[in-house]
Design the sequence.
């Protein structure tokens, strides 16, 4: 009797994508490939990530909490005051060796493993993809980059890159186990989404006969639509004028579409928009409005092109008759990015604003080109996270509730009806146990490749995918799930969530929400239900201890005060 064919896996990650940006999640941006994927699979409306990018990626590849996997603090923050975190397990700023990474496990169990895209889990070879289980890779190591590979500040010999771009032109990129020179080794027609996809397809097309006989695990983490907002002119033109009525109008349209399509409750009370002290749309000058709406047009074009490239991967897998045997996940790594970035220190003695003034042209006519450098700000981001509260880097639902699409016909054709929307609570930590379950591979437990490793905290989605409906499927039950980065914290058990936002993001006190009836987190029940709040805070304290955390927030804030710095970049 012939053994059943083992499944392939394709994990696609968008960078800073908002909940309602794509058409299957109520957005107006042209994303037909994602829409088709959703109609053939399922959409998760209660899928959760970390509040920022590298912790999410660590959770995805480890199946456990970021504080255990090495991203208890992002490397960009750690590099400000490394002495705070030195010697503290879980705060290394890279994917540590206290976890068994998903590609490592699959590599040891007969899978061909590959990736193309953003890593953001370590900048040196010993913690790069080639050392964490990827047989083949084409990788941007840091957390951001110019989408046209135009990085003049890196090639100016009078400057020394720091913090956001840590390194130089020779160690930002890798192919397999070799560093690439970003100035000379990348194609002249480089555009991030196109180039990442082309390299993934090249890896798959050029497998050896032995590799082709193996099932594959492919990881495609795009850098779109992360800032700087850049896209080809012809794609930007598709969206000309669509956003001229501003972010509040877009937010209203998106919210109506979400309700109409059954993606959020019809009676949802949306959170107020976050402005972060930016000027309201109606008070902007005509020129300011033109630049702001152009930024949103460029953002839409970036999402559009990402979808086009997802279609290229689908077309290839269909051509080799592997599409329907491939478990596909599409997700965002966190909520929409709305921070004001001018003050981020990028080069020694210089802020991002200084770098932009010196090297880039942000005139209206040039926006979107390789030598422009913009972001769209908190008001547009709030349109993308509605009805949820706040944005990326917050542990509110706007920062951690993300779009997720899953397609796998062997299960969805016999279980959940294709096109189904599930409201079951899930997290990014579930991807590893789900993949291993479907691959027929056991997690190694507490020992792997001769070292001690942490067990998984996520849960397999198999029971959910095999169910006829999700009303009775609860994969987390009473399990405690927590979030924290430099004091910005939350904990969830079932429908209950406690939230802590230190100043200036919040009031520095615990809040309590019933997410089943208050998705927008607008009705704080802390004073009405003190016993429930105390129970949830006790759950958080348990999570704090189990995850090996320490009070990094207080120490970090003291260092900021001592240095006379007002922000935690």
Sequence:
């Amino acid at each position: 009797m012939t053994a059943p064919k083992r499944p392939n896996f394709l994990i696609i990650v968008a960078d800073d994508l908002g909940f309602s940006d794509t058409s299957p999640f109520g957005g107006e941006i042209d994303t037909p490939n994602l829409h088709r994927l959703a109609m053939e699979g399922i959409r998760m409306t209660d899928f959760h990530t970390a509040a920022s990018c590298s912790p999410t990626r660590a959770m995805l590849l480890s199946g456990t909490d970021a504080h255990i996997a090495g991203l208890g603090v992002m490397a960009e923050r750690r590099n400000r005051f490394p002495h705070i975190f030195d010697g503290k397990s879980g705060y290394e700023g890279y994917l540590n060796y206290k976890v068994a990474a998903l590609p490592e496990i699959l590599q040891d169990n007969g899978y061909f493993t590959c990736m193309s895209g953003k890593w953001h889990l370590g900048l040196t070879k010993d913690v790069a993809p080639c050392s964490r289980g990827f047989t083949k890779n084409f990788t941007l190591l840091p957390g951001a980059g110019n989408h046209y590979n135009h990085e003049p500040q890196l090639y100016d010999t009078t400057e020394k890159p720091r913090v956001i771009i840590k390194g130089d032109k020779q160690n930002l990129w890798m192919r397999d186990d070799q560093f690439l020179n970003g100035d000379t080794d990348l194609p002249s027609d480089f555009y991030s989404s196109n180039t990442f996809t082309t390299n993934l397809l090249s890896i798959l097309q050029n497998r050896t006969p032995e590799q082709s006989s193996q099932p594959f695990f492919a990881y495609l983490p795009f850098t779109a639509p992360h800032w700087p907002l850049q896209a080809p002119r012809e794609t930007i033109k598709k969206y000309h004028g669509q956003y001229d009525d501003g972010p509040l109008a877009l937010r209203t349209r998106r919210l109506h579409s979400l309700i109409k399509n059954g993606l959020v409750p019809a009676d949802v009370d949306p959170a107020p928009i976050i402005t972060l002290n930016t000027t309201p749309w109606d008070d902007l000058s005509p020129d300011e409005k033109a630049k702001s709406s152009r930024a949103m047009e460029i953002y839409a074009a970036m999402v559009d092109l990402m979808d086009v490239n997802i279609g290229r991967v689908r077309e290839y897998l269909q051509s080799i008759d592997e599409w329907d045997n491939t478990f596909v996940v599409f997700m965002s790594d966190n909520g929409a990015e709305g921070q004001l970035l001018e003050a981020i220190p990028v080069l020694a003695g210089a802020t991002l604003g200084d770098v932009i003034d010196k090297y880039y042209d942000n005139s209206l006519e040039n926006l979107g080109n390789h030598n422009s450098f913009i972001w769209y700000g908190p008001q547009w981001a709030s349109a993308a996270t509605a009805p949820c509260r706040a944005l990326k880097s917050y542990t509110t639902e706007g920062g951690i509730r993300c779009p997720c699409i899953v397609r796998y016909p062997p299960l969805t054709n016999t279980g959940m009806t294709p096109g189904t929307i599930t409201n079951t609570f899930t997290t990014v930590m579930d991807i590893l146990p789900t993949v291993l379950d479907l691959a027929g591979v056991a997690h190694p437990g507490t020992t792997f490749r001769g070292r001690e490793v942490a067990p998984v905290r996520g849960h397999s989605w198999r029971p959910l995918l095999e169910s006829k409906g999700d009303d009775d499927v609860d994969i987390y039950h009473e399990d405690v799930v927590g979030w924290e980065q430099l004091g910005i914290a939350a904990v969830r058990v079932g429908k209950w969530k406690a939230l802590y936002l230190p100043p200036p993001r919040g009031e520095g006190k615990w809040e309590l929400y019933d997410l089943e009836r208050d998705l927008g987190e607008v009705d704080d029940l802390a004073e009405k239900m003190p016993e429930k709040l105390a129970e949830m805070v006790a759950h958080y304290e348990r999570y704090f201890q189990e995850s090996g955390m320490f009070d990094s927030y207080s120490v970090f804030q003291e260092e900021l005060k001592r240095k006379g710095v007002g922000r935690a970049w």
